[in-house]
Design goal:
Length: 75
């Protein structure tokens, strides 16, 4: 199952994150222990994403059709 988050605070990095945008979050248990989340951001130069403070996002559940569309768009 894919994990999706929505940006609720981009003040620390407005060039890389768009407020209100849905992002794919990659699994990273080590990051989670440090209250971080690994996200594929606007830069997209790193296939393994970037770490951001988890407080900048909130996890969301999407309908299956929306998940498929986002996964296809991020390929």
């Amino acid at each position: 199952m894919n994990k999706f988050v929505i940006c609720i605070n981009n003040s620390a990095n407005p060039a890389s994150l768009i407020l209100g945008k849905v992002y794919s979050a990659l699994p990273d248990s080590e990051a989670e222990t440090h209250n971080m989340v690994r996200v594929i951001d606007e830069d997209r130069s790193e296939s393994d994403g970037y770490l951001y403070d988890a407080s900048m996002f909130t996890q969301i559940e999407l309908p299956e059709v929306a998940e498929r569309a986002l996964i296809a768009a991020n390929k």
